[in-house]
Hints:
Elements: H1 7-14, E1 21-24, E2 28-38, E3 42-48, E4 56-59, E5 64-66, H2 73-86, E6 94-98, H3 113-147
Parallel strand pairs: 2-6
Antiparallel strand pairs: 1-2, 1-5, 2-3, 3-4
Amino acid sequence: MDNVLTFDKLADKARPLFGQVVLVYGSDLAVLHGVGWTEWDFYYICRPKGYQAEPVWYSAVGYCEGLKGHLPPEMYERIENQFKLNGPMPEFFERKVQIVGSDPEDYDPARHPAAMEVARQRAHEEAVARSAELGDVLDIMLNDESAS
Length: 148
């Protein structure tokens, strides 16, 4: 089972790209900060383009390809300089684990895909419940009108 991805294998694969501009999912430019692990998935932690953009967790189901060495050096440096102007470059390779009960200091639900999915599910359930309540109210109103 040597082809099974583990957190250590992902970290070993990503570490050479640390601090470099990478292409995530084939279309997103970002700077690689490290790797993450939740109870659901492994992630590349990258800061996307944009002024003062915060790191985002990209699922490792997609791929992360370094641009250094694939572009002419002057072109790569221009792209890298844009990232440097928009925020600090990472100082150390991050390995973050966010599993229920892990260190809450590293946990940011605004940026964490698993928490965002839970929030989306909760919002969906609340919308379904509101819809059922509105349906009950509508039934009562329609029954009142038909009784008149």
